[in-house]
């Protein structure tokens, strides 16, 4: 994840403000992670 929009996500308290927006994970500042990225970057436990 690159870019200024993701900088606030380094703060643990801000990161915890995520919400599910359809199939994406989003934050109040407009940052989001697409479902394809979550799938590709995820690990099977």
Throw out a few tags for this protein.
alpha+beta; 24% helix; three-stranded antiparallel beta sheet; globular; 2 helices; 45 residues
Strand fraction band? Answer: 15-25%
User: Structural class, please?
Assistant: alpha+beta
Name the average pLDDT: 91
The string of secondary-structure elements, in order, is HEEEH
Relative helix content = 10-25%
Number of domains: 1
* C-alpha termini separation: 22 Å
Number of helices: 2
Global shape = globular
Q: Nearest-angstrom radius of gyration?
A: 11 Å
Largest sheet: 3 strands, antiparallel
Query: Widest sheet: strand order?
Result: 1-2-3
Q: Count all strands and give the number.
A: 3
Low-confidence stretches: none
InterPro entries: DUF2442 (IPR018841), NE0471-like_N (IPR036782)
Protein name: DUF2442 domain-containing protein
Walk me through the structure.
Strand 1 and strand 2 (24-26) form a beta hairpin. The chain has helices at residues 12-15, 35-41; strands at residues 19-21, 24-26, 32-33. Helix content is 24%, strand content 18%. It is α+β, with helices and mostly antiparallel strands and 45 residues long. The protein has one domain. It starts with 11 loop residues before the first helix and ends with a helix. The model has no long low-confidence stretch (mean pLDDT 91). It has a 3-stranded antiparallel sheet with strand order 1-2-3.
In short:
With 45 residues, the protein is an alpha+beta fold.
Topology:
Blueprint lengths: L11 H4 L3 E3 L2 E3 L5 E2 L1 H7 L4
Antiparallel strand pairs: 1-2, 2-3
């Amino acid at each position: 994840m690159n870019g200024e929009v993701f900088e606030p996500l380094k703060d643990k308290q801000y990161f915890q403000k995520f919400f599910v927006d359809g199939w994406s994970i989003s934050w109040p500042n407009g940052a989001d992670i697409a479902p394809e990225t979550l799938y590709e970057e995820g690990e099977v436990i």
